[in-house]
Each structure stands twice: as structure tokens, then as C-alpha cells.
Amino acid sequence: MSGPAGLLLAVAGAYGVHLLYTAVALRWSGLGPGPRPGGGRGSGRRGPQEWLAQAGLDGVRPLEFGAVVAVLALVGAALGYAVFGAPLPALAVALFAGSFPVSGHRDRRRARRAVAQEAWPRLIEEIRILTASLGRSVPQALFEAGRRGPVEMRPAFEAAQREWLVSTDFARTVAVLKEHLADPTADATCETLLVAHQVGGSDLDRRLRDLVEDRIQDVQGRKDARARQAGVRFARRFVLIVPLGMAAAGMSVGEGRAAYRTGAGQGAVVVAIALTVACWAWAGAIMRLPDEERVFAS
Fold this sequence. Notes:
Number of strands: 0
Number of domains: 2
Strand content: under 5%
Shape: elongated
Largest sheet: none
Number of helices: 14
Structural class: mainly alpha
Distance between the termini: 49 Å
């Protein structure tokens, strides 16, 4: 056998030998050329599960979230068919209604991250005072500050403290805290405290002071940006209100309701719904503030 077929067979054989060697010698199983970066402990929370954790839905599985989306889509389809009396508009309304949990999740995630961003400078400063002035150990200072933190963040600190009481392993403790908070500032703070706890040294106070100043500048910049966007966010709501009002007015005038049942009417409704969704998403995209990337995720 020669030519492209022989080359393909040789490559397949060589790759098979590679997979056998990595499975026996490196104890890695998979069809890829190597393990994915960050594929160790805790990597299962990346993606949808991490997004749910950031929104405070840590106990909700992606499958359950998808079921809620499906139910709302069915309700939207029923309402759309009741209003327009046609399948295509009902399908468009179903897709739009199914996006409500996703947008609600994003709003809740954004609100939780805003709370965390505003709370972390105070928490870090409190940890700095507890360790530098009052002689608390790093884990003790972390848990004391967490108990006085925002209500949304306390369950994460409680879970981390339970892990500490069981294992007294601070690395596993901060991993639990980072896993529940899923926040870039929490990651950086936990890694700083972990290094100070394991290595020691007298520069923890300076490092925490620098981290506080950096977080304060970030929070103030985001507040200023949101303040400038207040009027635009208010105007964005008219993207939904005005088309709905015009649709209701059109159905109440003459044969407006019957017009929606024609082929042209259904097409116009679908296009109008698509344009409304596109405008809503576009307006949200241009106002979205950039999120920090998680560098020290578990």
C-alpha cells in the first residue's frame, strides 16, 4: 500500500502507539494528544456550572436550569399562539421567552459580582488588620472577615470553614472558597493568603495593602461607568415596551388580529421579534463592562 492511503495508515498507527504509551506510562486516558490545561481537580466546574455558581445558583445543575428554560419556552409558545393565532409567531415568542432565565441569570450574576467587587476591599483591609495588628492567623482572619461580609458571600466562607475544621488543609480550604465564589478578586486574595500561610514572611501586610488599593480603583472606575450608562439603560427598556404596545394596538384596530394569521403577517411578526431581540442584545453588548478573567481558578 502506497500513496496517501499508506501515509494515513502510518499516521493512524503512530497515533495509536502514542495513546497506548500515554495510557500505560503517564496514566492519562483520552483521545486527544494530551490532557487539557487545567483539567485537574475542580475543572468540572468550568463553563455552565461556574456561571451558575457566580449567580448564586451553586446547587442548581445545568440540566435543571435547562428544564426551566424549556418550561418557559412552552409557556411563551402557548401565549404567543393565543395572541397571534399562528405557529411561526408562537415559535418566535417561545424562543424569546426561553431566553428569560438566561438573561435573568446574567443580571443576577452581574449583581453578585458587583456586590463582591464592592465588598472585597473592605474584607481584604479587615484581613490585613487582623493579621498585622491583632495577631490572628491567616485562616482565622479569613473566616472572621467572611462572617461579617455580605450575605451573598457568607455561605461560601461557611463552606470553606467547614473544610478547614475537617481537614486543616488551607490549600483545600481556599480551593473550596474559590469554587463557591467563582470571582477573580477572591482568587487573587486566596492565592495571596495561601502563599503567606505556607511560606510566611513579613510582607503580607504590604501585599494586602496593594491589593486593597487596586480593588478600590477598579470598583470606583466601574461605578463611574455605570453612572454614565444610567440614562442609556433606562432607554433600553423601550426596545421591548414600544414594539409590544404597537403589536397590541395593531390587533385592536379593524382586522388586525386576522392579519397576523396570514403568511405575510406571520413573517412580519417573526422579523419584528427577531429585530427586537437583536436590538436588545446589541444594546446590552455595547454597555457591558469587561469582566476580569479568572487567573487562579481551581
